[in-house]
Each structure stands twice: as structure tokens, then as C-alpha cells.
Write a sequence for this structure.
């Protein structure tokens, strides 16, 4: 699994899965990432990755041609890429460790749903308990409203494995 995470917003920008990540596949994923970011009018200045041999020199060159500085983490230093380590741990604890994945299509579906939850519904402490896609909006709850008057709506992505809650509109 290849995941690109924006450190500032904690937003998962792109992910892809394969059982054989060769040079051609890695280059295609870098191109796909650049197209995704361009479609959303997002600029990237740096890309941090480890020294895994799955990242070929051509991968770094492709990014450098787009004015993206590639930063390679030190050898055997997972804390140098702590944000990604944290995301992998969260995805495993909250989702993947609780399911039996039997194929790539199922894995991609589960990760797509989890990524949507992570970006749109999961609160992040570093973001003042807001999800990455809702940084600009803050839920408004009137200070004089009685908590028992509030209606909460629950959604259950992945068949109830994950729960998302939001304040429902007053009737």
C-alpha cells in the first residue's frame, strides 16, 4: 500500500495498492498523485519518504521536475516520518485489524471508505478535534441550547466497524 499524507492538514491525499510495486507502478502512482493535487489546486513543496528500494531514483526525479523537493528519512528512523507511522497505526487499529481481507479489491474498498472517514469524519487532536476536510468550518452549537434538545445522527461506514456522529438539523 502506498499512501500520501499532507502533514499540515493531516489529510490523506492519495492511496494505491499492489502486490508488486515495481518502478513503472511507482512512477504511475506519482503521476496520479500529481494529477489529483492539480485537480484540487493544491501545491506541494516537499515529499518525505523512507529509503525503501521501492522508491526508485526516477520517482524522485519525476517529483523534482514538478518542483517538489524530496526528503529521504534516515535509515531505520521511523520517528523521522512520524505522521505516516501514526496514520498506518490508526488504519490498522481502527480498521484493518478488525477485518479479514481476502483480496485486493476488498482492501481497496475498505481503505477508500476508511480514507473518506479519516478525511471527513474522524476528529484529530492536532486540528482542534476537527477532520481535515472540515478545517474551515466549525460546528455551531448555540451556547444557550439544552444538550437534551440536540439530536445526534450516527452513520456506520463499513457495516458499523466505524461510527460517525454529527448534530442533526433541528426539526
Amino acid at each position: 500500500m502506498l499512501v500520501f499524507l499532507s502533514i499540515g492538514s493531516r489529510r490523506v491525499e492519495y492511496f494505491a495498492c499492489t502486490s508488486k510495486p515495481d518502478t513503472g507502478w511507482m512512477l504511475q502512482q506519482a503521476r496520479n498523485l500529481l494529477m489529483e493535487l492539480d485537480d484540487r489546486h493544491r501545491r506541494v513543496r516537499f515529499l518525505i519518504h523512507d529509503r525503501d528500494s521501492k522508491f526508485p531514483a526516477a520517482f524522485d526525479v519525476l517529483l523534482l521536475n514538478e518542483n517538489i523537493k524530496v526528503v529521504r528519512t534516515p535509515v531505520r528512523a521511523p520517528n523521522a516520518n512520524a505522521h505516516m507511522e501514526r496514520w498506518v497505526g490508526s488504519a490498522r487499529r481502527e480498521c484493518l485489524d478488525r477485518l479479514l481481507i481476502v483480496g485486493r479489491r476488498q482492501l481497496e474498498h475498505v481503505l477508500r471508505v476508511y480514507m473518506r472517514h479519516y478525511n471527513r469524519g474522524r476528529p484529530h487532536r492536532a486540528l482542534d478535534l476537527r477532520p481535515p476536510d472540515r478545517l474551515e468550518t466549525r460546528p455551531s452549537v448555540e451556547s444557550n441550547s439544552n444538550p437534551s434538545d440536540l439530536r445526534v445522527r450516527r452513520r456506520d461506514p463499513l457495516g458499523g466497524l466505524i461510527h460517525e456522529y454529527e448534530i442533526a438539523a433541528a426539526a
